[in-house]
Amino acid sequence: MYLARKRIGREIHYFIRESYFAGGLWRSRDLFALGPDPGRYIIYPGGNSFYVDQIVEETLARKGVKTDQMELERIFLPFVDPHIRRIIKDFTHDFRPKKRLPAREQLRLQRNFHLFDCRRLLFLKFGGTNVDPLLKRPLSFLNVLKDKSRDEIEQHIMDAEAKLRPRETLAYIYASFGLAHRFRGRLTRFVPEAQIMEKLDKYFLEELCLLAEDETWRMGLDRETVLRDYLSRYVIMYFDRLEKQRNFFEEHQARLARERYLAARNTVARAAATFGVPEEELMRMGKEEISRLFRRRARELHPDHGGDHEAFIRLRELFEELMAARGFYRRLS
Predict the structure, then answer these.
(1) What gap in Å lies between CA 296 and CA 305, rounded to an integer?
(2) Are 17 and 29 in contact (CB under 8 A)?
(3) pTM (global) more than 0.90
(4) Distance, CA of 208 to CA of 203 (rounded, Å)
(5) By the number of CB atoms within 10 A of the CB, which of 12, 64, 143, 180 ranks highest?
């Protein structure tokens, strides 16, 4: 059994569900609807103790599900009074070493897990956008994916995603959907911020739609269900949660463009005064025409012809700035 959440209207409602194997697939079913406040089923007899209302255990028993207070306390623990929860966790932590499978057996097992699920768990544990090479190693924490329905896997991962920091959102989606392979050949393929945002938007939506069509990942659910209940959160995460970050990037780019424009106009104004031509005329001149202006003025200022050495150096620097401002990018050797 596990705790599941689902948005109904404007509220989050909670359910006790279980995964079961039928028809060659792991599926899920509701066992008990807890409503928007599961805490109402928790009873505090005094001190630092609590127990779950007997009605929950009785209702599950009528559905043929055997359980006990220990299992129910684990499910209801997130809704227990924080002070009591902290004390209970200190005394219930399992310090026994977990038995690990031999490396070869572990690798064989994790090859059965869906790549999208593995990528998400790898990022949530290690971070970084180049997670695929890690799958060549035996990783026992991936076994949380074993013998679970699509819903139980998603509920587990949603809990872990809640701890993501806002600045990690883009990297998480980039790694999870394997978007780096869309930028093969680029040295920056593992840096999502280095990609063109319009292309990134397009590739993300394409990969999401491909996943929705993947029957192996859907595990018996229809396309509309997985889009609505599980994949829609990534669209919200990508476009809504990144909106501030996206706006900041666009404002930053606009500010840089404005600064470059003002710097270029300043350079043109200084060059026009130095060469003795109007700014408009200087802006219409081509590369060779500007070069001729420079050579003419350079001969007048060259030290070999009685000119000023410092003034000649400033003229040379101004010429290079002007060529860069006009987009010719010529640098004198």
Answers:
(1) 12
(2) yes
(3) no
(4) 9
(5) 180
Q: Kindly list the distances between the CA atom of residue 1 and the CA atoms of 37, 42, 215, in Å, as whole numbers in the listed order.
A: 19, 18, 24
Alpha-helical runs (H) found in 112-168: 115-126, 150-161
Among 322, 265, 261, CA closest to 289: 322
Euclidean distance between CA atoms 315 and 309, whole angstroms: 10
Going from N- to C-terminal start, the domains of the chain cover 2-92, 104-241, 253-325
Q: Are the beta carbons of 156 and 3 closer than 8 angstroms? A: no
Query: What's the token pair of residue 244?
Result: 């501030």
Instruction: Label residue 200 exposed, middle or buried (CB < 10 Å: 0-12, 13-18, 19+).
Output: buried
Q: What is the 3-state secondary structure (H, E, C) of 227-262?
A: HHHHHHHHHHHHHHCCHHHHHHHHHHHHHHHHHHHH
Strand partners, 11: 8
As averages over each run of 10 residues, the pLDDT of the chain (333 residues) reads: 92 96 95 96 92 94 92 93 84 65 95 97 95 95 96 96 90 96 89 88 96 96 95 90 59 71 86 89 88 87 78 88 77 42
Pairing mode of beta strands 25-35, 11-22: antiparallel
